[in-house]
Amino acid sequence: MNEQQYRQQHHDKGSSGRKTNPFWFAMQLGMFAGLIWGGLRWMAYAFHFTIVVPGFLIEPFYNHSYLVTARGGAAGYVVFIGFSMLASVIYTMFMKKIPGPWAGIVYGIVWWVILFVAVGPMIKMMPPVTKTTWNSIYTDFCLFLLWGLFIGYTVAMEFNDERLREPGGSKGSHNQHSSGPKGASKSGSQARGEESNDNEGRAGGTDSNNQPEPVM
């Protein structure tokens, strides 16, 4: 089986060999993306790296005084997980065939621009970038960039055979390792045969030398 046949056989399949369901894969991926990066963003707000509250996505629907509380932060955390699941489904449905990490990076930056520069300030999610702090801009930009990278590159790994770039090399190395002991055992048996023949020759030579001379 050549490399092309191997790739076609394992196309759109997970590690278990079954075909991956894009929708459920995207839902699970988005849940983990929301849990990880939403939690990191909550920590960044708690340590004053950003002034934008964790529940900024529901800022138009709740009072700001509620969103700065622990309950408001937890509500924002849950909503961010749901938002990440939606964003992951969108990426998987339309961009899953793009290999490499760069599409995910761009995806995260685009969402940051939409939420923090374009739409967000218009609907009072957060203050305009011209009226916020540089620390907030840097923090949220980097977090969304990494969030997009996490989603995009995970999807690329699953649907573009990033794990199977060199199947022939791995097989060749396996064959080399498997053929090595056989060759070694064969050479060892030959060496033992030669040694036994040598010992027999030596024994024969010793017996011929030790035979009594005839008496005249």
Number of strands: 0
Radius of gyration: 33 Å
Number of helices: 7
Written as H for each helix and E for each strand, in order along the chain, the element string is HHHHHHH
Ends distance? 79 Å
**Regions with little confidence, pLDDT below 50 for 5+ residues:** 12-16, 165-188, 203-209
Give a quick account of the main beta sheet: strands, pairing sense, barrel closure: none
Q: Beta-strand percentage?
A: under 5%
Shape: globular
Q: How much helix, percentage-wise, in residues?
A: over 70%
How would you classify the helix and strand content by structural class?
mainly alpha
Report on this model:
This protein has 216 residues and is mostly helical. Helix content is 70%, strand content 0%. It contains seven helices and no strands. The chain has helices spanning 3-9, 22-46, 64-67, 70-95, 102-122, 134-159, 167-209. Helix 2 packs antiparallel against helix 4 (70-95) and helix 5 crosses helix 6 (134-159). The chain is globular, with a radius of gyration of 33 Å.
